[in-house]
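Note to self: the last two entries modelled the partners one at a time, which told us nothing about the interface. This time every component goes in together.
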Amino acid sequence: MIMRREILPLSIFGALAVLPLLGSFGSDAFILSIVARVMIFAIAALSLDLILGYGALVSFGHAAFLGIGAYAVGILSAHGIREAAIQIPVALFVSALFALVTGAISLRTKGIYFIMITLAFGQMAYFFGVSLAAYGGDDGMTLPGRSLFFGYDIAASERAFYFLVFAFLVVVYAACRTLVISRFGRVIRGARENAQRMEAIGFSLFSYQLTIYVIAGTLCGLAGFLLANQTQFVSPAYMTWQRSGELIVMVLLGGLGSLNGAILGAAAFLLLEEGLSHLTEYWKLYFGPFLVLVVLFARGGLMGGFKRLTGTGDGR
Amino acid sequence: MLKVEGLEAAYGDSQVLFGISFAIAAGEVVTLLGRNGMGKTTTVNSIMGLVRPRAGRVIIEGRDVAGEPPHRIAKCGLGLVPEGRQIFPTLSVEENLVATAANRFGPPRWTLERIYGLFPRLQERSRNMGNQLSGGEQQMLAIGRALMTNPKLVILDEATEGLAPLIRQEIWICLKALKQEGEAILIIDKNVDALAAFADRHIILEKGRVVWSGNSAALVADPVLKDRYLHV
Amino acid sequence: QEKLKVGIVVTLSGPSAVLGQQARDGFNLAVKQMGGKLGGLDTEVIVVDDELKPDVAVNKVKGLVERDQVNFVVGPIFSNVLQAIHKPVVDSNAFLISPNAGTSNFAGPQCNPNFFVTSYQNDQVHEVLGKTAQDKGYKRLFLLAPNYQAGKDSLAGVKRHFKGEIVGEVYTPLGQLDFSAELAQIAAAKPDAVFAFMPGGMGVNLVRQYRQAGLANIPFLSAFTVDESTLPAQKEAAIGFFGGANWAPDMKNPQNEAFVKAYEAAYNSVPGTYAMQAYDAALLIDAAIKSAGGKLSDKNALRAGLKKADFQSLRGNFKIGVNGYPIQDFYLVQVVQRPDGKFATSLREKVFSDYVDVYAKDCKPSN
Amino acid sequence: MSLTLLYVQTLNGLQLGVLLFLIAAGLTLVFGVMDFVNLAHGVQYMIGAYLAAMFTALTGNFFFGLALALPCALLFGLLLEFFIFRHLYARDHLDQVLATFGIILTLNQAVKVIWGAAPLSVPIPEIFSGSVVLMPGLLYPVWRLVIIASGLAIALLLGLLVTKTRIGMLVRAGATNAPMVSALGVDIGRLFMIVFGFGAMLAGFAGAMVAPILSVEPGMGDNLLILTFVVIVIGGIGSIRGAFIAALLVGLVDTLGRSFGPSILRAFLDPAAASQTGRALAPMLIYILMAAVLFFRPAGLFPAKK
Amino acid sequence: MTAPMLELRGIRKNFGALLVTDDVSLTIPRNELHAMIGPNGAGKTTLIHQISGLLSSNSGQIFLNGEDITALDLPQRARKGIVRSFQITSILPHFSTLENVALAVQARSGSSFRFFGRADHEAALNEAALTALAEVGLPDRANLRAGLLSHGEKRQLELAIALAAQPSVLLLDEPLAGTGPEESAILIELLRRLKGRLTIVLIEHDMEAVFSLADRISVLVYGKIIATGTPQAIRDNPDVRTAYLGEETV
Ligand SMILES: Nc1ncnc2c1ncn2[C@@H]1O[C@H](COP(=O)(O)OP(=O)(O)OP(=O)(O)O)[C@@H](O)[C@H]1O
Ligand SMILES: Nc1ncnc2c1ncn2[C@@H]1O[C@H](COP(=O)(O)OP(=O)(O)OP(=O)(O)O)[C@@H](O)[C@H]1O
Ligand SMILES: [Mg+2]
Ligand SMILES: [Mg+2]
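The predicted structure of the combined assembly is written out below.
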């Protein structure tokens, strides 16, 4: 029997799986690339939701990991290494390392101070990217093509790339789901609620929080790898604070701490951006109020609204 | 002074109060007794407007204030010492006392000096922030803060929680003095024998209903109640 | 009859939106004046905002070429966006025509037969000022640019022709508001002239603060700092300041006079180079389609038509070079207040004639 | 480097600091004291600047323009409060982030629709258009002195308001426990409304005051917003004094770092590497400053007493 | 001779000019129930903070079972068996009552760096948690969100959490405050059962409880221990009467 709370993820992934097979949509490479982009940002948002939604660690520099993942592709490609089997480990490793160092420093602070110190590191990463004159500096760099998988250019077609991203999304989602209900996840959630209480019963939160921060950063690095491949372009613009802010908005829009929400939020954000801006140049005049209305009337973001509609209580 | 009629309250779907009724006259001391979770605090909060009553009336000096916002109700002369103290952490002790101080009815009976006289400990700590106080000091501050609004009716929820015996005795003396001055008092506390000594009437709540009410003599005389609530 | 679709991708949000608007308006004006037809074909113009985010631009552009199946993409304004959209467009069925951004990499070895530029190779504008400084005999020059790739390229461009002493070379953070510190440095260095590359709002702040600091007696040479997009805010503060350009609104030729008049009537502001180059982009497309006999499917014919650039540019002298970048004249321009009270740049002297960018020699066209 | 230049640059640093404080003041009040994360502060600042530009152009006089712009900014703040913010006081910070982010998008776009995308400007008011000689060849506009004076005045005013008045106490109390303040007989809702309106007016005032030296353009508040958050966080949230000192610190570090950083680096590195490193470091300076301050003092320089 | 379970040597803490605990030395043998009383603001809670590691001391040393634990922080000491309750209720409000307690069990049983498996389905954790809840008299509240409990119930939960963390030294900061007379009786009964099985430091203003439970009592006034002794000795001590007990009959 399928539990009710599985309805939503199953329908999301079901729809994503069949989309390329639907005649009219499936043949449209553009639709596929839009949805692939949604899925890439969904991975980034999922990773952010891990720390933001479950750990109440609001990172305002999360886009740095997108950039790191993307630059791993860009820089390696510039040196002729287009093999994903090398690029992905490098992207993940560098992301993890950056997360480890910045996380260890940032976690000394709490609340809004944490937000701002992560912003500081994000900005440093951004300006570092800008100063990389050899790799295009501010202008960024174009990739020669998509990454090769074991020597094969299998991601070249929009459809193949789509399925690749889809597979990554499924794996990341499943991993996150497992993580948050595990013992480890419960400690992270507890730390959000009341750190002092958790320490008083024996949890050294720093190591747990650093671990989740590194996990989140690493996953976002993966999203960066995919993003670079999708656009075949790498630039510091992936790391601006505005981009970090947008990731936060995606998570909040979808609903904090529910994973499904991160996916919904990324989809809603990007599709509305795409759809509205196609209709009118002044699309932000509609998108802005939409966000405000979501906050005022759909507590808990889209997931909050969804839960109230279906009566699936608190998913925790 | 205060009359509560058929008060019902709920948190979301779960109803907690099922028609509470009682009254307090000016200069009267009334207690609310009952085990944990029986609805004492909910009753107090419903009176204050902190919880919106689902049904019933809260009449203060002839006016039904049920459903009005807390600040209006407080302005009718109710001073609350809340459960859990709820000191303002980012205000100093002195600021905690003066920020909401008021005197709405004639010359002030409570001033900073008088509070400090009652709780010298607070004066020693007057520049400290609210959250730097010890538990007992916070309780003193919460009582002082409520008195500084010069209320006609003081409501004390867990009046002496965390207070040392000496201070507890001070509080009882102070409340007796208040009573003498014609102040009405609604009090929740676990020191039933101390309460029995000076309260006029007692109300026992169980599962959100008034199961017994009567005066101190009746309370002390009833062996069942005595066993249940006094533990003597 | 075939229908022509043109996608415009420019920056329409954020502080730099005014540049994108000028380009969009300039293009639309041309289409309107030609009765909604370019090359005699009914023309649909689809405008999208790149938000100055490269990855957003890539998706928008993919939408244009894949979903909307446009024949030409006109854009962008900014070079980092150009880097991102270049590949997806030139690899598709459409031609990319840049009305402003003209980076060095696509002018040199990475030149592409499907990419054309109606503006300039970016360095050339900066070179105008370097050459001017050299020609005017300035010995000591102070350089100021924002700290990003285009800023570095800019100063490199100036130095290509200026052989005197650089008494200060200052890079400011992008988006800086207050230039007090730099102005003090300038005053301390006492240069013969200042060169500044400060686009957009930064330029507005710099120019006004420069004058407020009483430095206006030091000649102010600049690129993309005093132009029709910033002058409405700089006003008197910019009068007498110099810029480098391939055109100015007061250029004397009948087409241009008509264009400026029509633009001002339609959009109530003085057109800048962004508008002019986009207008020319429309003329270029028009000419190319005509020379291909209206056959949009014949890419080679279209390409040949684009190369030929058989139209009368608003700036007069205009050819397309081997790398798809223009060959044209460059001028020193100066800010004036026109009799009607509006501010504009005005041609002063020709600095380069038929100027080919330095990268073109590295371009080996494949066809 | 001459001593005069050092002295002038220090002065410039301080004045940038005061400028930053002027802009951060409203945010200190609403975010630092009322504990409401108002990302829309930046657009309120922008709207103040636009209103000043518009009314100055209409009336031909900056002070008439300012006199009209301030009540409009106040009214605008009150409208925002009435329709949106008051429903969010009791909410999570992140809800406030999302809603005010929506407001940023809307207003940045609306400004462009109303006033166009091109930057606007406001002339320096006639009576303050003079300047003083700072060093040979360099003038210092009197208007900047006026800005500094008003920044200092506001710092003082806010400091007194927040720490010395009943209103200040009640706002601080309400930020941590609004129901309790209400239960003690104070209409905290109305108080918050007033304070919020005042904060909006301060933002508008900052925008109007700097309009004569900075350009007025859509989105002008966005980067400043981040900068003001940096200032407040370095200072320690809730501390007016902290915010003021942090603003000066940021101004000094930024200005001095930019003007003397490269020459200092040249003492350690060869010139090419120095200018390369200098260029990479300069924009990061204030972020490095913030990270360093938070590393050693995780709750800012003047943490609210806990 | 075996080392005492807990030993404080010259513990001191000051906040600015205020000396809150002043050269406190105390030896508590294994399985003693040691009560700590004193006026409000005497420094009792601060002392518990120092023993548990929530606050570091300005000087002095703390020994657990002969081992110097002065340098350990709060969670490290908790893992060594020093578990405390808080005077001002400290729970996880959005977790269920059961999960609040189960987390405490989890903290002491096996690693929590486990990324697989549902923590809330671990029977061992839940059973131990339920037992603790039953002991404090809250068994029927297991599935309620802890934040929704009444004040007194939260106080009971607070104690359950501490018990579930399997302490060898239990530091209780006014466990009876806020509970009603009936619940107080249950908790006193519980403490009596625990007594002799583990070492307990009990801060309480409920003199009836203190004098009926304690093996020994220390009296803290202005940060100094003015007396330590058996309940009878303390009761008869005139200094204690003037400083703390007043007229209260015990
Ligand atoms: N962070 C702090 N800063 C300044 N003073 C503090 C701080 N924490 C506690 N104090 C002061 O230290 C003294 C001791 O406080 P503590 O909480 O230890 O008292 P206590 O003995 O537990 O009292 P109670 O019985 O009322 O709970 C109090 O006077 C309190 O005001
Ligand atoms: N915010 C809330 N939401 C839902 N239920 C609540 C809430 N607050 C209290 N309750 C429930 O309402 C009931 C009555 O609580 P109340 O606080 O009035 O009890 P009380 O008599 O004051 O108890 P105590 O002596 O423990 O303070 C309890 O069962 C409690 O769990
Ligand atoms: Mg209660
Ligand atoms: Mg205590």
